[in-house]
Amino acid sequence: MRLFVALDFPDAVRHAVRDLIARLKPTCRSAKWVRPEAMHITLKFIGEVNAEKLTPIRSALAPVYSAASVEMQFRGLGFFPNERRPRVLWCGVKASLNLAELAADVERALVPLGIPAESRDFVPHLTLARFQAEGGARRDLEALVRVAGELKSYDLGRTQETEFHLIESVLKPAGAEYKRLESFNLLKGSA
Asked: Is 165 a catalytic residue?
């Protein structure tokens, strides 16, 4: 099983993302655009695990909580690793401080199960597209970088989330399909 832990977001934001992708897609046809219905805010990518590890993972995540809902605003565009060598186009997520705390708590809960801690800093974002910057695709990318630069403060909406989810990723030829295995109320520990 290929698993990860994530937050979801409302359909209104998905529609705004869909509209934005429709606007950007003609600029860079060589990109592999992510389907908005498949997007989420990853808290922890677990990776491949045996099915017998599912119950301990669920048990480890069950006590994770926050004192307040996670507030997120989806705003602006950028590139990983940077605009000069773009590999990923992302939408930024400005969030309440408890989002990073939640990601760290999820991480700490899973380490005792032998799931390694992430070496990179937690950077909340929505992946919009992935691409290779080779050959004729380079001109497409340059155009996309220009357009994205004009949308650095583009606002796609906001949300308050009170749940996080354990999700299975099933890889298929048409792309990954996600199956929500369990949802956890992140406010359960608050008074």
From this structure: no
Tell me what pLDDT residue 189 has.
53
Q: Which of 125, 156, 161, 167 is catalytic?
A: 125
40 is catalytic: yes
Q: Check residues 53 and 152 and name the one with the higher pLDDT.
A: 53
Q: 91: domain range?
A: 2-185
Q: For the chain, how many structural domains are there in total?
A: 1
Question: What CATH number does residue 157 fall under?
Answer: 3.90.1140.10
pLDDT at 191: 43
State the number of CA atoms in the 13 A half-sphere of 183 facing the CB. Answer: 9
Q: Does a structural domain hold residue 190?
A: no
Candidate list 5, 9, 17, 40, residue with the active-site label:
40
Cβ proximity of 71 and 146 under 8 Å? no
Q: Which residues contact 132 (CB under 8 A, 6 or more apart)?
A: 30
For the segment 112-152, what is each residue's pLDDT rounded down to a tens digit? 999 999 998 999 999 999 987 555 567 778 889 899 988 88
